[in-house]
Amino acid sequence: MKKILLLVISFLFIACEHKKPVDLLVMGAKIYTVNKDFDLAKAFVVNNGKIVEVGEGEKLLLKYEPKKTYDALGKTIVPGLIDAHAHFYGLGLQLQKVDVTDTKSFDEVIEKIVKFQKKHQTKFINGRGWDQNDWKIKKFPTKDTLDKLFPNTPVAITRIDGHAMLVNQKALDLAGINKNTKVKGGEVKVVNGKLTGILIDNAMSKISKIIPQPTKKDNIEALLAAQDTVFKYGLTTIDDAGLSKETIMLIDSLQETKDLKVRLYAMVQNQQEDLDYFLNEGILKTDRLSVRSVKVYADGALGSRGAALKEEYSDRPEHFGAMLIGLEELKDLAMTISKTDYQMNTHAIGDSANYTILKVYDSVLKYEKDKRWRVEHAQILSEKDFNYFKGKQNIIPSVQPTHATSDMYWAEDRIGQKRIHNAYAYKKLLKRAGLVALGTDFPVEKVSPFLTFYAAVARKDISGFPKTGFQPENALSREEALRGMTIWAAYTNFEENEKGSIEPGKFADFTVLDRDILEIPETDILKTKVDATFINGEEVYTSKPTTKVSEGAH
After folding, report:
1. Which of 300, 362, 429, 536 could bridge 163 with an S-S bond, Cβ 3.0-4.6 Å?
2. 30, β-bridge pairs
């Protein structure tokens, strides 16, 4: 008996001596791995920023000697959340400007501008966020009040969707815009022979040229502020929809110095000098930055009636919106991109824009494989045009569920009862394409991925309206929604082998939630908070002043 006991002790001693040293053990959790079978786990081991093994804490402790242990105390862990369409840099810049989001009247917009200017005394007042559809009087505002308050200071306040702008007369004068100014792919709005101060789509570019550009210091502060914001919501990768070479290189440098730890999938803006550089240089890929796509605008937004429709707007006869790019230019651009390893990601809202993009994609990619070109928004389609999404190889929808719950109050007014049934049709898109990538489009919408998740599965706004959900037949299941925010989003970025699920060999990016969003009552999803955010096994955000990460094993 003594011999047996000695053998057991010797075995345990040898086993302990041969434990493999690792950086981190995560245990005590309900882990949605989001692997192929959507398996659950309780623990996993991390070393050198990557997941080594997934399983149960006690068994993993027999094999590994962790330098640190994170006890989730029964909380839910999901793969690091990915926002498949947002404006990360734009969010940072917005934090430096006057913010008029969630205003309930134009008077409130004016109040916020006045308050901002009293505090900052800027030489050019710039901001974003108004939406006339949220006001009692649902009409575009005019510049009259701004002209009186700021006769010598230019003002430019962009609509929430980024496709319309309100400016005062001083800004118009500096930009050389008058009532006779015509812009292809845009509109200078004139009523009764007078400028209203409203500029649509491409007309805004004239103002953009006169707005003082942020300094390098401003840009660095913007990027770091945006990072602080997204980490609080458990986001570990952001697809930034349209960046210049200058901004991309700044991001790369900040990631090199480890000041910027968030991962970014950067879409190159459709400007010739930026395209010439990246398409010729090829893919830029590091652990935290991927540059292999081009962001293109096909049309404007539905809220500002800039979306290109096949038939006239229901609430504005003889108006069809407008394409922002000519057909031949679009074809040439698509052909150029197809000859590289770059992906084409095109903003398309209206059914005419979606048809045009899908037809061009289909034609250019007919003999190509695994190109994964994306239609950003894919908001309104004709019935037969859903058929262009043929599995998940060449054409993929990238959608933002909160657009449906934000737009549902007025979208039918714009496009009528018949067309609305093929708008915001995420389940239908999923069935055709085999997957959907989910994003927020922040700062157009809120940063919170839990609003995205809720809107996708409930099809309701934060007040629970409508009771049965907006077109509930197009709701996603909770599993589908989580896949859309993790592994499917990673797939659309050509990154499914390195992130998007909690599996051995992948980056240790994960999000700790205070509740189980796949099991809790629907109404409780909106109460979800992030306990911690990890990238490469490093805790980059914690909601608690004292961390649960402890030295050594338990």
Report:
1. 300
2. 76
Q: Report the SS3 class of residue 309.
A: coil
List the Cα angle 502/229/98 in 5-degree steps.
Answer: 150
Question: Which DSSP string corresponds to 402-453?
Answer: HHHHHHTTTHHHHHHHHHHTTBS-HHHHHHHHS--EE---TTSS-S-HHHHH
When pLDDT is averaged across residues 512-536 and rounded to a whole number, the result is: 98
Residues of the chain with CATH 2.30.40.10: 1-80+500-554
Q: Give the count of alpha carbons within 13 A of 529, CB side only.
A: 6
What is the spatial distance between Cα 207 and Cα 154, in angstroms, rounded to a whole number? 10
How many CB atoms neighbour CB 261 within 10 A?
A: 17
Local structure of 241: helix, strand or coil: strand
- Check: CB of residue 264 under 8 Å from CB of residue 238: yes
* Banded model confidence at residue 8, pLDDT cuts 50, 70, 90: very low
pLDDT of residue 548: 65
Give the per-residue pLDDT at 177: 96
Q: Which CATH fold would you assign to the domain 97-208?
A: Diaminopimelate Epimerase; Chain A, domain 1 (3.10.310)
Identify the band that residue 551 occupies on the pLDDT scale cut at 50, 70 and 90. confident
Task: Dump pLDDT digits (tens) for 467-495.
Answer: 999 999 999 999 999 999 999 999 999 99
HSE of 506 in the Cβ direction (CA atoms, 13 Å)?
A: 22
> What is the C-alpha to C-alpha distance for residues 43 and 27, in angstroms, rounded to an integer?
4
pLDDT at 546 over 60: no
Whole-angstrom distance, CA of residue 43 vs CA of residue 57: 5
82-86+215-498 under CATH 3.40.50.1260, yes or no: no
Domain with CATH 3.20.20.140 in the chain: 82-86+215-498
- Rounded to whole angstroms, the Cα distance separating 233 from 440 reads 12
Q: Does the pLDDT of residue 40 top 60, yes or no?
A: yes
Query: What sign does the dihedral 61-64-66-69 (CA atoms) show?
Result: negative
The CA R_g of the chain, rounded to the nearest whole Å, is: 25
Domain boundaries for CATH 3.10.310.70 within the chain: 97-208
User: What would the pLDDT profile of 53-106 be if each residue is shown by its tens digit?
Assistant: 999 989 999 999 999 999 999 999 999 999 999 999 999 998 889 999 989 999
Q: Please, where are the H alpha helices in 152-263?
A: 169-175, 205-208, 216-232, 245-256
Backbone φ, ψ for residue 235 (5° rounding): -85, 130
Query: Are the C-beta atoms of 133 and 303 separated by less than 8 Å?
Result: yes
Q: What is the mean pLDDT of the chain?
A: 94
CA geometry: angle 55, 60, 62, nearest 5 deg = 150
pLDDT digits 0-9 by tens, 177-206: 999 999 988 999 999 999 999 999 999 999
Q: What is the pLDDT at residue 2?
A: 54
CATH code assigned to 1-80+500-554 = 2.30.40.10
Provide the 3-class DSSP secondary structure of residue 244. coil
Residue 248 phi, psi (nearest 5): -60, -45
Q: What is the tally of helices (H) and strands (E) in the chain?
A: 18, 26
| pTM for this model (two decimals) | 0.88
Q: In terms of DSSP bridges, do strands 40-41 and 43-47 run parallel, antiparallel, or are they unpaired?
A: unpaired
